[in-house]
Amino acid sequence: MGETAVDSKFSQYTLRWRGNKLTTTQYALFAIQMAVIILLSWLGAIATPVVGPGIGFLYWAYPFFVVFTLWWGIWGIFGAWLGAFVGSGLLTGLPVIPAMAFSIGDLVPALLIFLLYRGYLRKHGVDPLGRDILKSKKSAAWFVVWVMGITNIIGGLWGVYVLVLLGFVPANAYLLGAGLWITGDAVVLLIAPFLSKYVTPVVERFGLVNSGWVS
Amino acid sequence: MGKTDSRKEKRRVKTILFSARADSFYVNMNPLAKFFLLLALSIGVVISILRPVPYLQYNILVLVFAVGFLFESGTVKYLVKSYLGLLIVALVVMMLWWVVFNQIGTNPIFSVSFLGATLRVTYLSLYIGVGKITGYASMALLTLLTIMSTRDADIISALKKLKVPFKAIFFSSLVARSLNIMSEDLDSIKQAQFARGAGAASDNFFKKVESFVMLSIPLTTSMIKRSVDMGFALESRGFSKSKSFSDFIDEKPFRYYDAVIVAFGVFMLAIPFLA
Amino acid sequence: MHAVSISNFYWKYPNFTSVKSDYALKGITLDINEGEFFGITGPSGSGKSTLCYAIAGLIPHQLKLPLNFEDNISGSIKVFGEEVTSVLKENGKLKISGKGSMAPLVGLVMQDPESQFLSMSVINEMSLGLQLMGIKKEEMESRIREAMEMVGLGELYSTASKIHPSELSGGQKQRLVIASFLAMRPKVLILDEPTSDLDPKGKMEVIETISRLKSKSDMTIILVEHNPEVMLRFAERIAVLHEGTLVACAPPSEIYSDKALTSKYNIYTPEVAELSDYFSIDEKQKVKIPDSGFRVNRDMPDQSNPIIKLKEVSFSYDDGTKALEGINLEIEKGSLVALVGQNGSGKSTLSKIISGILKPSYGEMEIAGIRPRSKKDRSKLPLHVSYVFQNPDHQIFTRSVTDEISYSLKNAGITGAAAAERISSILERVGLSDKASEDPVFLGRGQKRRLAVASSIVIKPEILIVDEPTTGQDYRMSIEIMDLIKGLNANGVTVLLITHDMRLVAEYCRRVVVMNRGSIVFDGTPETLFMDENLLKLSSLSEPQSVRLSKGLMHTGALKEPLISAREWLEFFDFLKSKTKIEFRSIEDVEKAASKIAAAASKRGAVESLIYIERGGMVLGSAIAKVLKCDSYAISASHYNSIGAQTKEVNVRGIDSLNIRGNGYILVVDELVDTGKTMKETLSLLLERFPKTRFLTCAMITKPHSIMKPDITVEEVPDDTWVVFDYERKEATEEFRKGNPELQEVLKGCLSSHAFGYSPAIEKIEKAAASAKTKPEAIFYQNPETALFARLASDSLGIKRLVPVSKVQPFQDKTKYASALIIGSQQFAEEIKTSTNAKEKIFVQF
After folding, report:
1. Which chains touch A (3 or more CB pairs under 8 A)?
2. Which of C12, C16, C399 to mutate: most A Cβ within 10 Å?
């Protein structure tokens, strides 16, 4: 099978807008997964070393929303945003304005990850649900470059930029703050491949993985 | 835990986080007015701390307001138990960053040399630092006050007022409801992990990572089970077939004192612009 | 009109991977009448909930189906004539048609009230369905008020907008869910195990609500329930499901009286059903119970070596809720203690403190020799204390059943072959051997619970805390799990059993601790607890049916102390029986009797021959013939037919073929002369055939009302005495009556080989023994069929070791004999071949 061919077992997971009919059970599931991300973000944030103003070092919800996004598309992306805004934002006592602004820093990486995995990577023999990161060098490389690298860096730079703009972080400390943010997230993201390998088959066997953005 | 005895006067109500006094002024405020006040004061504080030298008096005023209503709403004990420590750490770190990375001012209190670099702490940098942390603290306490004094139902009522479509409102209500359920499930899962010696209580980083991965199986199972139950519960009430959604109880009408609150918010927002 | 009509409905849950799954419902055809109170019962995983979801139109309409679902569904369901689901073929393609969700016509209340709440205040919960129906505000208010009153929550109406569902008790929650459907005025209300997640108080509240519904409304109610007492009280008919199939549908009294059905499908029955010989299903006495001096034999726990010591322990949650206050408790090493009380009474908090999950706010404790002072100390406790949570989903972490068990073993440092052996043995015990490689997530709820119990007990902890281990299990599996726990306990493991099931407490525990509002309100024996009405009321507990029966009889004076379980009742009845029972426990008893008879017979002169009446007289007759050294002949005579019923005529066979020389006198032998008809008829026929021969009759036992008194008897017993012979156990005769052809063949074989004395049989055994390379050291014989031959062969061959093997009891003898004789049928030999460990096995077929 050629490099550009879509692996037949992955062909159902694409970037089309709607897959199957959305059932009420799925509707409830998407609400619950958002609640879970909010909770994990909250628990992660209050049990995390604070290394800078508004900067926690280990954001435990990150790997979870990455896999949730790969499974559930737009719902996962929205969950990533809500997790950051409410869970690691409002519920941890982060003021409402920075919380609202910096949560974009989670939404954008989630969106970019979904686009790349369900779009380009799916067509190039990489599992769009990330189950093969631990066994394929190519998938591992893409994970490191795209998930731990580029999207994480974008998120970190944005988040700390917002904190500087709002006057929480001194401008001089921008790079230091962003560096700490990005490093911390990269560390916890190492869990994502395990989660994907370990739990995706369960969700798939229930027929609950979205084939498109919405369902 | 506590059972509801219908004959007793209900003294506390459950809120998004913990519970608050049922008859508190802040708890019974119209939710839209409350959210407006939160936004107005927070923007005011942001403007205050964005000035080259923060407007300390303003920050302190907001801080006093927030602390006062934390007492009034009966939520201060939860703040002390759950968040005070966290907040103090965040403030100390913030203070350090502003003292270390904001080397301005001519009037040093003291200076330290380390590896060829000199760290000076001036009256100005200290003042700015204090201005920043009071601003941060006032906003954080105000946010916590709002969350701890707002009931989930208030959010729904506010969204309804803002004419958000019913399915979207209901979705938010489900998220809020699930927070409650999943938080209990998550607690139980973590305790179950501990009971099987799964290292949930370990401080070792790798053990923590392992327990997080192990947590994912029961967490996923519980999410799926809950979603089937909730989906079925919704459908057995005719959710997907319903075309309209009739109004029922509007618990908190916009009253005159809510208008006073909004006016107060506008006034407070204006201060940093005018001062 | 039928409220619900189901026609040949099949359903298999879709599976989106290659793993194969079975049908959850198989060919269900069922009609439920309008206004009927219909019950559904059956073990966990039998398809009860699935059937409810299908009636409500949730299955298949609310589930994602694979593209080709031909294999998943067939048949149809209608509610009040309206099609809920049916499968059509359109243009060669399968299509699911029907209305789907039947709201508001059908309401569905599920097991767990918590996850059915969809909003955050009582009033919003009540209004949700009505809002979705588009009902106007004024009507909504009146409907809500009416429905809340109907379920007994009327008093909450005024504060309903301030109450969050999580602030309600379990019973209140479930009643609120019921009310939220009642407000929608459904014509069919389905209640799917509405009490299974509730404590006794909640159960009681919901049952009262159901009772109100039944008396006040004409709704059709479908109730899924395990509890037979609830079913008996409410249901007009019940359907029994087993592995997705409808196996019975009848009024509950018929179902629960059908022992064969309940035992075949492991259906929970009322406790009195176990005592059905003495009580009817409605607890009425069937027999006269005399005053007796019966004392139950109950061990009292020793109080000298506590493994759990708590002193003044208190605990408060972060929000200030006091969960425990001043707990003083010591639990003996090796004891099995029940911890009971309603939800929120502090049982779980106490267990979490003992297992190190929570740290007490105040007080001192010592668990398995550890006094945990720091978090680190507490994290060591799980190595000593295994805590099996109520919800098995929360304790399953791996992706295969085997891994789940080996995870526990690995934590305890057990790996390799030792681990593999323990895994296979524990999986066997909990009935999960065939699921070893399955993903635990996809096991049924009952199976998951068994796995959770297995994973905890496999490491043989010092202390085991187990929370509701039998919920959702069928009757047989509940007993298996409790026996497993009891077995561990017998090996020294201290067990703390948290349960709402008072039958378990009565049956398995000698100490019970009752908690109420964070304090211990009782610590003593179950019988003391069950007799304390005030305490039962205070703790919202109810005594088991056995205790209720006892209380009734104690009033009449027939019982001095309460009998708390079916087991104790059976012991009591055994005791009563034993007063009028004569038991011949062994062949020796028969031989002693034979010697007595032989001595008495010899006094009358030389015995020429002996005729015994088979089958009862066979053993005794052979033993007498052995003493007298005379020939013996068998005839058969009976006035019972093949199924054991009395017949008018006595049926005598075998007299014509007798070939007696007739010099001395002839002894006619029977073991038990009951009515005397058999003996009388036999004797008259013998006299007809051999008019000149002298006959003497003898029997081991005779009863006073017998029309024929034998010439010689060993013992005369009162008329109502029950005589039991070791070689004629009930099981064997039942087998024979059932017409087991194999066994009949064996017995016939015994008789024919024995028709002339015993020598042919013994010769056969002796010959076989002589053919052995090594002299046989033991005889394994089929009991009771070949007991006599084995006995005789053991004497003549000098083999001391005689091993009786009964068909009705499991057997294992792993002694390493060099050589052994196996006496019995072909099938018997096959069956015990693997249960014996002899190097050389010589088989003698009878």
Report:
1. B, C
2. C16
Does residue B221 share a domain with residue B234? yes
Residues C2-48 pLDDT 10s: 999 999 999 998 877 666 778 999 999 999 999 999 999 987 778 99
Give the best residue of B188, B216, B229, B269 to mutate against chain A (max A CB count within 10 A): B216
d(CA B40, CA B44): 6
Please check whether residues B17 and B118 belong to one and the same domain. yes
Q: Which residue has 């507490």 as its token pair? A: C378
Q: What is the pLDDT of residue C275?
A: 72
* Residue B4 lies inside a defined structural domain of this protein: no
Residues in a beta bridge with C107: C189
Q: A199–B212: do the CB atoms touch at under 8 Å?
A: no
List chain C residues with CB under 8 Å of A20. Answer: 64
Q: Do B144 and B167 reside in the same domain of the chain?
A: no
Residues B124, B164, single domain; the answer is: no
Q: Residue B199 has what pLDDT?
A: 55
Separation of alpha carbons C822 and C799, rounded Å:
13
**Same domain assignment for residues B31 and B119:** yes
Question: How many structural domains does chain B have?
Answer: 2
For residue C166, give every residue at least 6 positions away whose Cβ sits within 8 Å of its Cβ, in sequence order, or none: B14, B180, C114
Neighbouring chains to B with at least 3 Cβ pairs closer than 8 Å: A, C
Contact C393, B222 (CB under 8 A): yes
Q: How confident is the model at residue A47 (pLDDT cuts 50, 70, 90)?
A: low
Is the same domain home to B184 and B119? no
Q: Check whether B6 has a pLDDT greater than 50.
A: no
* C284 has pLDDT over 50: yes
Matching CATH number, A17-205, of 1.10.1760, 2.60.40, 3.30.1380, 1.25.40: 1.10.1760
Would you call the peptide bond into A63 cis, given omega within 30 degrees of 0 as the criterion?
no
C chain contacts of residue B226, beta-carbon cutoff 8 Å:
115
* B42 or C298: which leads in pLDDT: B42
In this predicted model, what pLDDT tens digit does every residue of C420-433 receive, in sequence order? 999 999 998 888 88
Q: Is the pLDDT confidence value at C591 over 70?
A: yes
> For the residues C665-669, what does the mean pLDDT come to?
83
Instruction: Answer whether residue C212 shows pLDDT above 80.
Output: yes
Contact residues on chain C for A204, CB-CB shorter than 8 A: 16-17
Q: Do B217 and C180 touch (CB under 8 A)?
A: no
Q: Is residue B221 a part of any domain in this protein?
A: yes
What is the reported pLDDT for C309? 94
Q: How does pLDDT run across C112-144, given as a tens digit for each residue?
A: 888 788 887 899 899 989 988 989 888 999 999
Query: A92 vs chain B: nearest CA distance in angstroms?
Result: 8
Q: What is the pTM of this model?
A: 0.73
The whole domain housing B194 covers 152-244
Within this chain, do residues B99 and B215 fall inside the same structural domain, yes or no?
no
Residue B159 lies in a domain: yes
Together in a domain, B146 and B66: yes
Strand pairing of C2-11 and C25-33? Answer: antiparallel
Domain positions in chain A: 17-205
Q: Is B253 exposed, middle or buried (0-12, 13-18, 19+ CB in 10 A)?
A: exposed
Evaluated on CA atoms C699, C700, C704, C706, the torsion sign reads negative
Chain C residues within an 8 Å CB radius of A206: 16
Per-residue CA distances from B249 to A97, B160, C126, C511, C559 (Å): 31, 11, 11, 52, 61
Q: Cα separation of C832 and C829, whole Å? A: 5
Q: Distance of CA C261 to CAs C42, C470, C843, Å?
A: 11, 21, 38
Examine residue B5 and state whether it is found in any structural domain, yes or no: no
Choose from C120, C198, C321, C517 for mutation: most chain B CBs within 10 A. Answer: C120
Tell me the pLDDT band of A207, cut-offs 50, 70 and 90.
confident
| Residue of A25, A36, A54 lying closest to B228 (CB–CB) | A25
Could you say which residues from 795 to 834 on chain C have a Cβ atom under 8 Å away from some Cβ of chain B?
none
